[in-house]
From TrEMBL:
The keyword Signal applies. It comes from Paraburkholderia sediminicola. Keywords: Signal. InterPro entries: Peptide/Ni-bd, SBP_5, SBP_5_dom. GO terms for molecular function: peptide transmembrane transporter activity. GO terms for biological process: microcin transport; peptide transport. Residues 94-507 form the Solute-binding protein family domain. This is Solute-binding protein family 5 domain-containing protein. The keyword Cell membrane does not apply. One of its GO terms (cellular component) is outer membrane-bounded periplasmic space. PANTHER family: ABC TRANSPORTER PERIPLASMIC BINDING PROTEIN, PERIPLASMIC BINDING COMPONENT OF ABC TRANSPORTER.
Length: 610
């Protein structure tokens, strides 16, 4: 019996140091540190980084609200009751909490807060602060995705100053981990000397009062921000923190575009470049400093699920509401040509919303999947009950011409015919749409989009590429005011409530939600409910496979590509642990686990077994 199952079945809840959604935690109660850190890593030095995302400026220190652009690195300041490990798919070890109790009926989880836990102002972290954090994040003053993510948590109840109980709408194995992962901040954040409070959604440059290892040191013009390690950080000796947070200072410099960012790296203005563009890695991340060894390039393997990255079609637009039209657009992307000509054959085509994991649907549906799909057979494409769709291929014997002929037939079935030099519907309206991107990444992406536009022209479709400032771009995405755009949906090893915000019908009408596609499907909603309420790993996999089949056969996204390694260029003198994590983002790994000094040679990680 798994640890969590045992707890749920026990007549009385027992306090434990860690929980796992399925199975048991990897690390024992007396563990000293995670396997993938260097417990003897030296402390010191300043790490200088560039834009970690598309933002080119910031105007607030509050990462939890919809309006404005948050400064990079704010996650260095916020902690949660528990923290997962990077070599397990779904575990939670005490961070702010030092024990966890799951109720026998699974309808609540109680956390005891470590009495040593302190906020940056010296105040103890209390149950009242945890309750305040949940209530605030679920309120209209926070970005709407938090209300969706934490929607299954009915309330937080203060048991005593150091004990908080989260109560749930229904039994759900993910919820204890979800509750533990909620960021916690002080009730005093935004409070004025006279006792009045700045509204949470109005907080801008008021420094957060949180419990993390770093503090804001200084910032300038919304383009540079520096953090310093808190000398009084309360959690430095916790097993989940040993070997981490090794830099005295972490500085972010924001550049106006990717070209400026790359040239600044070559000039020595910052220390680490995580490269997401294959062409840059081969052709542009080169030069005298690379030749001399002053700058070093390494590829670090990872086992993350890919997530979905692709051209998202906004189905709120009448133009994209017919699945035959969406499939036709998918047929117009020539990935094999792009991989040869632009990507130096460094990428693999994405063919699932959960590629590179066992969560990807393969073969014919299993009995468990059919149990979820059959009730919706009348509303689903019959193809859902067969093999997952294969992405178009132009390698012989395939060809772009054959794919475009198939696309033309689909468009004709959907009522689009070529006449008067354009593809037109029955009303005579031409097939035209806009592909939106932000100006920071447009230079590298425009050649890719140009090939798609060229292929669409052969079908009589006019697509236009528009690049805008990231702030404008994000505002349009939040309001779902776009035709098509490139989105990367964050990868997950254990899908859960975030999928409801990404694909649920309610989220489709919620401004700022992750359901940018606009999916409204009772079948998808039912499968999502089964997914978040799965009681075994097998049930979770069945639900995820069923979801993957429905989404892929819906052709909501023109899938792009992924790499199974992180490409990192860095200054000589930086070092990293010899054992790599299994599931990790490059930027977070660098800020939390690297150091200045002699490197330990990395050991290859074993592919995860399930």
């Amino acid at each position: 019996m798994s640890l969590l199952a045992g707890l749920l079945a026990a007549p009385e809840a027992q306090a434990v140091y860690a929980i796992a959604q399925y199975g048991e935690p990897k690390y024992p109660a007396d563990f000293k540190h995670f396997d993938y850190v260097n417990p003897d890593a030296p402390k010191g030095g300043t790490l200088v980084l560039a834009n970690p995302n598309r933002l080119t400026s910031f105007d607030k220190f509050n990462p939890f609200t919809l309006r404005g652009n948050p400064a990079p690195g704010l996650d260095l300041m916020f902690e949660s009751l528990t923290i997962g490990s990077s070599d397990e798919v779904a575990s939670a070890y005490g961070l702010l909490a030092d024990d966890i109790r799951i109720a026998p009926d699974g309808l609540s989880t109680t956390f005891h807060i470590n009495r040593r836990a302190r906020f940056s102002n010296g105040d103890p972290v209390t149950a009242d602060d945890v309750k305040f954090s949940l209530d605030t994040l679920k309120s209209p003053q926070a970005a709407p995705q938090f209300a969706s993510i934490f929607g299954e948590i009915t309330r937080a109840v203060v048991v005593d100053p150091h004990t908080i109980r989260f109560e749930f709408h229904q039994r759900n194995r993910e919820l204890p981990l979800l509750a533990g992962s909620m960021p916690v901040f002080s009730r005093k954040w935004g409070m004025k000397p006279d006792g009045s409070r700045i509204a949470f959604d109005q907080l801008a440059f008021e420094k957060p009062i949180a419990s993390g290892p770093y503090l804001i040191d200084q910032y300038e013009n919304g383009r540079t921000i520096a953090y310093r390690r808190d000398p009084n950080y309360w959690g430095a000796t916790l097993p989940v923190r040993v070997g981490m947070n090794n830099f005295d200072r972490i500085v972010y410099k924001l550049y106006s575009d990717n070209t400026a960012r790359l040239e600044a790296f070559k000039a020595g203005e910052y220390d680490v470049l995580v490269e997401y563009v294959a062409r840059n890695w081969v052709r542009r991340d080169v030069g005298k400093k690379f030749d001399s060894g002053e700058l070093i390039k390494r590829e670090f393997p990872q086992h993350n699920g890919t997530g979905m990255q692709g051209f998202v079609l906004n189905t709120r637009r009448p133009l994209f509401q017919d699945v035959r039209v969406r499939k036709a657009l998918d047929l117009a992307l020539d990935f094999q040509w792009l991989n040869r000509q632009l990507f130096f054959n460094q990428y693999t085509r994405i063919d699932s919303f959960f590629a590179n994991t066992e969560l990807q649907a393969k073969g014919m549906p299993t009995p468990g999947e059919l149990a979820l799909l059959d009730p919706w057979r009348a509303k689903l494409d019959p193809a859902v009950f067969g093999l997952p769709p294969k992405q178009p291929d132009t390698d012989p014997p395939g060809s772009l011409r054959a794919n475009l002929l198939q696309a033309r037939a689909l468009l004709q079935q959907a009522g689009w015919t070529y006449r008067d030099n354009a593809l037109r519907n029955a009303k005579g309206e031409p097939f035209e749409f806009e592909i939106l991107d932000d100006s920071g990444s447009s230079a590298q992406f425009e050649p890719i989009v140009a090939t798609l536009i060229r292929n669409l022209q052969k079908l009589g479709i006019t697509a236009r590429f528009r690049a805008s400032d990231f702030a404008v771009y994000q505002k349009r995405l939040d309001a779902f005011d776009f035709d098509a755009t490139t989105i990367r949906m964050a990868d997950v090893q254990v899908p859960g409530s975030e999928q409801i915000d990404r694909f649920g019908s309610k989220a489709a009408d919620t401004t700022g939600s992750d359901n940018v596609i606009g999916i409204k499907s009772p079948a998808v909603d039912a499968i999502l409910s089964a997914l978040v309420h799965a009681q075994t790993r097998e049930q979770l996999i069945d639900a995820t496979h069923a979801l993957d089949r429905v989404l892929m056969h819906g052709y909501y996204v023109i899938p792009q590509w992924y790499s199974a390694s992180h490409r990192v260029a860095f200054k000589r003198g930086l070092a990293w642990p010899k054992t790599l994590p299994l599931y990790y983002g490059a930027e977070g790994w660098i800020t939390s686990m690297w150091w200045y000094g002699q490197p330990q040679q990395p050991q290859p990680t074993q592919a995860p077994s399930h």
